[in-house]
């Protein structure tokens, strides 16, 4: 049985969890959120690294086949520390915004991210490395990730409108530079009349995770029964049930149907 742990400050890990259950529907998942310390972008690098290591330790108790840092900010600040602690015994996979994929289209695009990520050298390096031949607009989205954590749809829609208003005229491609934002991809699409192309990270990260552990990625079929479950969820180390606020999002609704009925320890 395949078992994969995911960590993030909040609901941003849901997109990657949903992608993993789509590509490997037999896999069991353990989720470690950290609501006591969200948003991660407000923490010092040292504090963020400590929080990521704390969540990784919670996941490691379940002896997972891999740990996924399903957060852009945490991947920047803590990926190497978590890898140093657990690899090679447990592969650790980080999350990178889909800048390379978007640049491959040859079209100008915008990157939506948290204020901390928008101003980071990390994001600028991605742009310089993979998108030097196109124009890239950096769009900060203050409060959007926090509103997604709270399932505050009014604030979510206001933040989406504010981000769209920052985009250059004619730009119709958006890279989602925060894992939370994919949960409201449908609302982003609906907010802009006309075609918008979104590039997000969950499917590429899920595929990379499965490659690292030697599991073939494909959907439900005769040899891939739909048996995988969310077997445990943690909030800053506390065992919890999945919050019902997940029902506000398509990926959240799917995960709620895959939660194990009775929680247990490793």
From TrEMBL:
Annotated InterPro entries: Asp/Glu/hydantoin_racemase, Asp/Glu_race, Asp/Glu_racemase_AS_1, Asp/Glu_racemase_AS_2
EC class (word): isomerase
EC number of the protein: 5.1.1.3
Pfam families: Asp_Glu_race
A GO MF term: glutamate racemase activity
BP-aspect Gene Ontology terms: peptidoglycan biosynthetic process
Gene3D superfamilies assigned: 3.40.50.1860
Protein name in the entry: Glutamate racemase
Organism: Brevibacterium marinum
């Amino acid at each position: 049985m395949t078992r994969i742990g995911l960590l993030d400050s909040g609901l941003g890990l849901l997109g990657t969890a949903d992608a993993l259950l789509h590509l490997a529907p037999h896999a069991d998942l353990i989720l470690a959120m950290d609501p006591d310390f969200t948003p991660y972008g407000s923490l010092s690098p040292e504090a963020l690294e400590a929080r990521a290591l704390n969540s990784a330790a919670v996941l490691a108790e379940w002896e997972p086949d891999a740990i996924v840092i399903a957060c852009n900010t945490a991947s920047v600040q803590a990926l190497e520390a978590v890898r140093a602690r657990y690899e090679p015994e447990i592969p650790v996979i980080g999350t990178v915004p889909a800048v390379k994929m978007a640049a491959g289209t040859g079209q100008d695009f915008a990157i939506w991210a948290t204020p901390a990520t928008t101003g980071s050298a990390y994001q600028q390096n991605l742009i310089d490395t993979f998108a030097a031949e196109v124009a890239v607009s950096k769009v900060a989205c203050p409060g959007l990730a926090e509103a997604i954590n709270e399932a505050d749809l009014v604030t979510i829609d206001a933040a989406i409108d504010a981000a769209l208003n920052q985009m250059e005229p004619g730009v119709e491609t958006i890279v989602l530079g925060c894992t939370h934002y994919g949960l409201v991809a449908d609302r982003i699409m609906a907010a802009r009349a006309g075609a918008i192309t979104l590039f997000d990270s969950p499917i590429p990260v899920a595929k990379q995770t499965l490659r690292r552990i030697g599991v073939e990625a494909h959907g439900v079929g005769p040899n891939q029964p739909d048996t995988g479950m969310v077997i445990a969820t943690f909030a800053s180390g506390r065992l919890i049930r999945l919050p019902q606020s997940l029902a506000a999002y398509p990926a959240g609704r799917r995960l709620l149907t895959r939660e194990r009925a009775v929680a247990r320890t490793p």
